[in-house]
Amino acid sequence: MSYYFRLKNSALVEFDPDRYTLLINTLQNPPEEITLARADARILELLLLEPGAICSREAIMAFAWDDRVVSAGSLNQSIFMLRNILGDSKDHDLLITVPRRGYRFNSDQLVSPASNIEQPAGQSIVEPPSITRVHLAPAIEKQRLGIAIRLGYLAVSVFALFTLWQLYTGYELPHDLQVAEIKQGALSITAVGKSKQEVDALKADVLSSGIVTDHLRGEVFISRTGSRTNLSCVQKTGDAYNLEFSFREERLISMFEKCLGS
Amino acid sequence: MNNHRAAWRHALIITVIFSACLAALFMTRSVPYENSQPYRSEGHHFMGGDTLDFKERLTISEPSAVISMLERLGDKERHTAVGASLVEASRWRIKIKVEDIQASSEEQLFDVSRHSELLFSRQYFRLGSILNLAVIPTHGDALCYYILELDRLRCMND
Hints:
The complex is a heterodimer. By secondary structure, chain A is of the alpha+beta class. Chain A contains 6 helices and 11 strands. Chain B has 2 domains: 1-30; 38-156, no CATH class. Helix content of chain B is 22%, strand content 47%. Strand 11 (240-246) of chain A pairs parallel with strand 1 of chain B, so a sheet runs across the interface. Chain A: Keywords: DNA-binding, Membrane, Transmembrane, Transmembrane helix.
């Protein structure tokens, strides 16, 4: 559906919101068609949906840029462009700024679709309420849609933050247990202890024991309490085995072999 | 028309993010064990010239857990069943409270004066005590944990 309104120079303008075009008819010159930028056309469409009603800057931005985040400067720029095109850059009589509230279209400039170019200036006919009513419901619906989308994004953002926090706490190992992995070919040795110093010392002892592990496969977990060492293994078959021994009395490599079933 | 298309696009994005979050949450809330699945393990304690053989079984059937142990030293044998309630279970932590202990014998299988550390580690199961099983990440399906109160490391498989 097209909208018709008059400019200050009495030119009749037909605005087609679907094609983003303005057809400007003047008495003196042949009709001129101008294609507006999409956002500019959407702004004009919103203001014309409810002529005379004030549209907030936020509502205009949401409608014109489909809820994309744009700066206030973009809106100012679009209004500036529209006013230039509509010859309203000086007086702002057509696109009226309502301080701290937004913008409205001057409904006095609207004319019925039946009006033609021969109609004298100054005798503009206000668009029948029926035309406006047809567009009011979609406009409200669109505004509500914008709010719903914003609320949806807000809710999903909060949920995403909560999920990230859960992921962080869920995947982080408990602070009261320290582990350090030593990878030796197909064998993985993990030193386990309650403090980092304890684990580092155990890791150093394992490394300095000079064990040859080329023939061993699987996972070994090692911890030490006092003189006793605890070895837990997951053999290559998937079976688990556990050994406890004195680090001083037993050779580490033979314990590894027993534990891993080699 | 444009607005409706955009609204659908936004709704789709919101739904995708929401579903991804839900899936991620479901994964983080998973526990490291399978409910009612008995985990078994066996091993040896080397004590000088002697070897104490043991078998252990852990079954967590929410909201309770049972740890069964069978120890053998030479011809002497002892078995213990510890009934516990599950206090907390997360990806890396299983917290249980000991509610019941049944042992076939109160006697120790080994010379306590010679192996005091072993005694201390094995006698900790006390009624009402809380045990924290810190789960250790493994590459396979085995359940490996460290009981913080006992300084006991165990790997078990189902």
